[in-house]
Amino acid sequence: MTTTAPAPIFDHLLRMTDHRGTFEHACFAEPRPEHGYCTDDMSRVLVVATRQPHADWDVHRLASVAVRFLNEAQDLTGACRNRMDSSGRWADEPTLEDCWGRCIWGLGTAAAHSKVAWVRQSAIVQFERAARARSPWPRAMAFAVLGAAELLTVAPELRAAHDLVTDYAASVAEPNANPSWPWPEARLTYANAVLAEAMIAAGVALDTKPLWQRGLDLLEWLLGHEAADGHLSPTPAGGRGPDDVRPAFDQQPTEVATLADACARAAAIDPRQIWPDGVRAAAAWFQGANDAGQLMWDPETGGGFDGLHADGVNRNQGAESTLAVLSTLQQAQHFSAVPQ
Predict the structure, then answer these.
(1) Cβ pair 223, 231 in contact under 8 A
(2) pTM confidence score
(3) Where are the beta strands (DSSP E) in 8-135?
(4) Distances (CA, A) of 320 to 37, 134, 160, 220, 308
(5) Three-state DSSP class for 192?
(6) Rounded to an integer, what distance in angstroms lies between the CA atom of residue 90 and that of residue 38?
(7) Cis peptide leading into 234, omega within 30 of 0?
(8) Which stretches of the chain drop beneath a pLDDT of 50?
(9) What 3-state DSSP class applies to 139?
């Protein structure tokens, strides 16, 4: 038996994007410009656009729009604004929250993988500016480390990236020695897999096996905890604790995409079948292998549905959900048509 993941389809994302950026929200498939844009989404746009193999002109244009948006989002200190209104005015002040970390993730990915020279060059300049800062927020730092690790694969001498990874590695807390709940937090919250993925990425970048092995161990536990009855049952928007009833909703597509990214990274250093299986399970979640048996994307346009509820699907196709589909299917392409 073989499995073949659908190819990513960029039609809906392109429809959601104008000259400034990608609109954050949609009403069903219709973009809602009045809600504006956000750095979190534009960072994800830069990731999926620059790691798409054999990208066409339209996808390269997405990367160009994204890298310009992130440049405008950055303060001279490296901190980032997150929200821009529909007229192009920033609606918040620069911070070192998740938008900062995701910005660095996008820039590092673009610098490592974009086929467009000016996008690579601009991404490096912006990366070095943002990477001077450090965030107190664990997920912000974890996303930033992913970008730094990507950049180090093509520029191992880049001091800003190396220092960011080194500082992150020094900040990782020791394991909690609780075999029933080894997670470093009392509850799973959001983008959980990025914490494990960052440990793997930093461990590989620094050639520190205990760190990457800890990331693998945590990710293996998380993957088992996020599965039920042969499919993924991800942490809902309200989080999940050790004794919470399952399944639970509202399930967000971005949780599935984060898990797929982490499993793909794990597969690069650990040959066990668990990691390709994890990526394929993430792709299958969008195709209906989930707690409600519902399709979570539009296979005609590539739009992703915004949430899985106990009583059905939120069929709005916002940027975050659409990018989650694209990201997951990109990862699944690497593991398609593999014997089971």
Answers:
(1) no
(2) 0.97
(3) 26-27, 30-31, 37-38, 83-84
(4) 11, 25, 29, 25, 14
(5) coil
(6) 10
(7) no
(8) 1-2, 338-340
(9) helix
**Per-residue model confidence as pLDDT tens digits over 293-310:** 999 999 999 999 999 999
How many CA atoms lie less than 13 Å away from 241 in the CB half-sphere? 3
Taking the C-alpha atoms of residue 149 and residue 153, their distance in angstroms, rounded to an integer, is 7
CA distance 223 to 54: 31
CATH number of 11-333: 1.50.10.10
- Please give the angle made by the CA atoms of 266, 269 and 271, to the nearest 5 degrees: 90
Provide the 10 A C-beta neighbour count for residue 270: 17
Contact 98, 157 (CB under 8 A): no
Query: Where are the domains positioned within the chain?
Result: 11-333
Q: Which of 134, 73, 146 is nearest to 109 (CA)?
A: 146
The end-to-end CA distance of the chain, in Å, is 6
pLDDT on residue 194:
98
